[in-house]
From TrEMBL:
It comes from Fibrisoma limi BUZ 3. This is Major facilitator superfamily MFS_1. Resistance to tetracycline by an active tetracycline efflux. This is an energy-dependent process that decreases the accumulation of the antibiotic in whole cells. This protein functions as a metal-tetracycline/H(+) antiporter. One of its GO terms (molecular function) is transmembrane transporter activity. Keywords: Membrane, Transmembrane, Transmembrane helix, Transport.
Length: 409
């Protein structure tokens, strides 16, 4: 199935990492239970996790270019294991400690996408990145399913459910830590980084203004890169609803419990797997990707708004979720594929790291915004998400009028 067997291990590591993250998602409300406005505390934890990537992702991406992808994958796996151990006491303080720790070392995806691009022939790039997207969707299915089976098999009482799921997450992240040691390097002859350059990179990573300057500098070499990153940023603003779902489904009009939330993620993930696999295996390489982004954004905008209008109807909610899988959920892989085509071995990890940092900034900002406006009305954040996808539509329309970009060598 895979021309390079390293892809199988990469996909396995990604799958387990997503399983761990999605398995603990439904129990997160337990950590802030009893606090006033629990949706605000959940949003704050998410903002902390994603905001930490603002400085850590470019640094880890640069290190992946200098020392190889393998060390960064190992560091990220160890960081996830340590962060999950912090959740064993089900207390709000440990919840925020986990978000801080896990966010700091969450550079795996910049390194993973660089590794996939390193070993993918040009004609298989969209397919391999698309399979990564399908693997992530599979993780969103297996994670809640594993939590549900664990709690059902052992008939765990509600007060102990969070602890049981956390123990499972620690075990799985420990397995991933061991698998990461078997990761074979994909970046031939990494040049290393001088101490002075590393110190400068750390300073730059803490400077948001410098982050934008670095993006502008890379865009002068890779024409069209900044536009793609801005499109990714607008998409990140709109997909903040992924992080809002747990709070909205549990506290909002649907009043779902942990089991129902798990079923939601299972359905969403299974459908996404099928759709992503078919689309990226048989369709993505045969269409105009930039035009597809535009139309998916056009159709996805009212879909996002509809989430806030489903009221108490679970049937309507699942209808909207299905349309979501067929439209805006396909945009991420298309943008990443176009971006990957602009990179070279020299600084691929750095570019993906800068992009991940911009996503971290966008996720941090959108989380603060939807957390604040949810205090007014729990449905209101979906108007914000829809507006952000409308911005992506406008950016995609502008991109269509530009010539196809190629890297300057």
């Amino acid at each position: 199935m895979f021309n390079d067997r390293r892809l199988l291990l990469i996909y396995t590591i990604v799958l387990i990492d997503v399983i761990v993250g999605s398995a603990i998602g439904p129990i997160m409300p337990e950590f802030v239970k009893g606090l006033p406005n629990p949706q605000l505390w959940l949003s704050a934890g998410t903002a902390l996790f994603l905001g930490m990537q603002l400085f850590s992702a470019p640094l880890l991406g640069k290190l992946a270019d200098g020392y190889g992808r393998r060390p960064i994958v190992i560091i990220s796996a160890i960081g996830t294991f340590a962060a999950d151990c912090l959740l064993l006491p089900v207390r709000v303080g440990f919840y925020f400690a986990n978000r801080l720790s896990d966010g700091t070392t969450n550079g795996m995806y910049a390194a993973v996408r660089s590794a996939i691009t390193d070993i993918s022939p040009k004609d298989q790039l969209f397919k391999n990145l698309g399979i990564e997207g399908a693997i992530i969707s599979l993780g969103f299915v297996v994670g809640p399913m594993a939590s549900g089976l664990l709690l059902t098999t052992f008939d765990v009482v509600p007060k102990d459910q969070a602890a049981y799921v956390t123990i499972m997450a620690v075990t799985l992240s420990g397995i991933n830590m061991l698998l990461s040691w078997g990761f074979r390097e994909t970046h031939a002859n990494p040049p290393g980084i001088s101490r002075q350059a590393l110190k400068g990179e750390l300073i730059n990573a803490l400077n948001v203004q410098r982050l934008w300057a670095r993006l502008s500098e890379k865009s002068r070499r890779y024409h069209g890169l900044k536009q793609l990153v801005l499109m990714q940023l607008a998409l990140t603003f709109s997909t903040g609803y992924y992080n809002y779902f747990v709070a909205y489904l549990s506290v909002g009009q649907l009043h779902m419990d942990a089991k129902s939330i798990s079923y939601t993620f299972i359905y969403f993930g299974l459908l996404s797997i099928v759709i992503n696999y078919i689309f990226y295996t048989y369709i993505a390489d045969r269409i105009n990707q930039r035009r597809a982004i535009f139309w998916f954004a056009v159709l996805g905008t009212p879909t996002l708004a509809a989430y806030g209008l489903v009221g108490t109807s679970e049937v309507m909610f699942y209808v909207v979720l299905t349309i979501d899988c067929l439209t805006l959920s396909l945009i991420q892989g298309l943008i990443e594929g176009l971006m990957a085509q602009l990179t070279t071995d020299e600084d691929r990890g750095e570019i993906f790291g800068i992009n991940q940092a911009m996503q971290g900034l966008g996720s941090f900002a959108t989380t603060l915004i939807f957390g604040a406006i949810s205090l007014i009305d729990l449905r209101l954040p979906f108007a914000w998400f829809a507006g952000c996808l409308m911005l992506l539509t406008w950016l995609a329309a502008r991109q269509l009028r530009r010539p196809v970009a190629l890297p300057i060598t």
